[in-house]
From TrEMBL:
<dbReference type="InterPro" id="IPR025857">
    <property type="entry name" value="MacB_PCD"/>
</dbReference>
<feature type="domain" description="ABC3 transporter permease C-terminal">
    <location>
        <begin position="295"/>
        <end position="412"/>
    </location>
</feature>
<feature type="transmembrane region" description="Helical">
    <location>
        <begin position="337"/>
        <end position="365"/>
    </location>
</feature>
<dbReference type="InterPro" id="IPR051125">
    <property type="entry name" value="ABC-4/HrtB_transporter"/>
</dbReference>
<keyword id="KW-1133">Transmembrane helix</keyword>
<feature type="transmembrane region" description="Helical">
    <location>
        <begin position="17"/>
        <end position="36"/>
    </location>
</feature>
<dbReference type="Pfam" id="PF02687">
    <property type="entry name" value="FtsX"/>
</dbReference>
<keyword id="KW-0812">Transmembrane</keyword>
<dbReference type="InterPro" id="IPR003838">
    <property type="entry name" value="ABC3_permease_C"/>
</dbReference>
<feature type="transmembrane region" description="Helical">
    <location>
        <begin position="388"/>
        <end position="407"/>
    </location>
</feature>
<dbReference type="GO" id="GO:0005886">
    <property type="term" value="C:plasma membrane"/>
</dbReference>
<keyword id="KW-0472">Membrane</keyword>
<feature type="domain" description="MacB-like periplasmic core">
    <location>
        <begin position="20"/>
        <end position="210"/>
    </location>
</feature>
<dbReference type="Pfam" id="PF12704">
    <property type="entry name" value="MacB_PCD"/>
</dbReference>
<feature type="transmembrane region" description="Helical">
    <location>
        <begin position="295"/>
        <end position="316"/>
    </location>
</feature>
<protein>
    <submittedName>
        <fullName>FtsX-like permease family protein</fullName>
    </submittedName>
</protein>
<keyword id="KW-1003">Cell membrane</keyword>
Length: 422
């Protein structure tokens, strides 16, 4: 069998261009398949690891998935705000251990601005039990102080002491309505987390109120009528509304009780969701797209395998003399069949290996781009057991399909003589 494998490999080398193109077509299909699997795995891991040890996310009543996305993943917008009095009512519940308020709605060059308090740095957890750490500086405390995420500092080339002006609303660039009269001073840069935390600007709740202190019905004050920044004092600012908040309960049982209580809150329509349950709903929502991509990648692989079979099959007419010689020197039916199946095996094996290499290259190039744009960290190709199984199945199917040209080659060898037909 080793000899037949060597003969099969040498035969393929004699048809280098066909061999290379066939391997490359299978490699591209394998790269697509593995790439989709990596992106799917990376998305699930990134989303699942972004928030840990939080019992509830609370916001205005609406979609639980939407609440999860705009609070944790900085995607989409809130439908309504929560009054500060409702927040304090829930915060002071004896079953509540801690809360992290979020005030959203502004941005900085495409990065979301989050108004929050010290609890974010004390209680927020990700990747299990990791907490937010400061790379440089100190946690913002004054009205016009800000901490920025790792990606914000890197992309905008910002450092401690720099001043930035925030934009009203969510904008990919500087925006039209910019709070230029009330700039913030960077006092902290967060350590990299490879989560959406890296792509946000963090200010105090008082800071969020301060930049809108002159606004009326969503419109800024007339030029010359703005309150000077140096006249705004933290102790004089009253928080009116926030967008959402995270809750850590005293126990799991307490969390379930709070869930029911908040969803039936009398003062205003609120909604509480368990992060894990909301994530499960999200995966169910996108499962159809996931299945569609898998079907497409499987079809692409099958097209590559069929292309390999066609390549081997059509080459048989030019190899009739080769097969006749093998039969003349005593090659059996099984040997001819094994020879052609070996070619299918070698082509698919090389295709899988090259596809793996191409996928690694794709991940290497695209990983920082996707991480920066979507906050999804695509893991490098340490193949999972299921992916090994898929590749083995691809090679097995290639060998099975290789039987078709093998039978054709055997039939040709029976009817052909050693002389070249003219």
């Amino acid at each position: 069998m080793i000899i037949l494998l060597k003969i099969a490999f040498q035969s393929l080398l004699n048809r280098k261009m066909t061999f290379i193109l066939t391997v490359f077509s299978i490699a591209l299909s394998i790269m697509l398949f593995l790439g989709i699997e990596r992106i799917k795995l990376g998305a699930k891991e990134s989303f699942s690891n972004t928030i840990s040890k939080t019992d509830l996310i609370v916001g205005s009543r609406g979609s639980g998935i939407q609440l999860l996305l705009y609070t944790i993943f900085h995607m989409g917008n809130a439908t309504n705000n929560i009054s500060w009095s409702s927040y304090e009512s829930i915060k002071n519940n004896p079953e509540v251990s801690w809360t992290i308020p979020y005030s959203l709605g502004d941005s900085y060059n495409g990065f979301r601005v989050i108004g929050t308090d010290q609890n974010l740095y004390e209680h927020y957890r990700f990747f299990g039990d990791k907490k937010i750490e400061i790379s440089e500086g100190n946690v913002p405390n004054d009205v016009f102080e800000t901490a920025i995420g790792f990606e914000v500092a890197k992309k905008e080339n910002l450092k401690i002491g720099d001043k930035i002006s925030l934009t009203h609303g969510i904008s990919d660039g500087p925006g039209i309505l910019t709070h230029k009269d009330k700039p913030f001073t960077i006092v902290a840069i967060l350590k990299e987390t490879t989560t959406p935390l890296d792509r946000a600007v963090y200010i105090t709740l008082e800071g969020m109120e301060a930049i809108h202190i002159d606004w009326v019905n969503g419109s800024p004050a007339l030029p010359g009528k703005e309150t000077p920044q140096n006249q705004i004092k933290k102790e004089n600012i009253q928080i009116g509304q926030i967008t959402s908040f995270l809750v850590g309960a005293e126990s799991r049982i307490s969390a379930l009780g709070l869930l029911r209580e908040i969803n039936n809150f009398k003062k205003e329509p609120l909604m509480a969701v368990i992060p894990g349950a909301a994530l499960s709903q999200l995966w169910e929502t996108i499962s159809y797209a996931e299945i569609a991509f898998q079907i497409i990648s499987i079809f692409v692989i099958m097209i590559g395998i069929i292309g390999m079979m066609v390549s081997i099959y059509t080459s048989l007419e030019n190899r009739r003399r080769e097969m006749s010689i093998l039969r003349a020197i005593g090659a059996s039916y099984k040997s001819i069949v094994f020879l052609l199946i070996s070619e299918s095996f070698i082509i698919s094996l090389f295709g899988c290996f090259l596809g793996y290499i191409l996928c690694c290259g794709f991940i290497k190039i695209s990983q920082p781009i996707i991480l920066n744009k979507f906050g999804i960290l695509i893991p490098f190709l340490n193949l999972q057991s299921t992916e090994y199984l898929y590749l083995i199945i691809v090679i097995a199917i290639s060998c099975i399909i290789g039987i078709i040209p093998a039978i054709k080659a055997y039939k040709n060898s029976l009817s052909d003589g050693l002389s070249i037909k003219i």
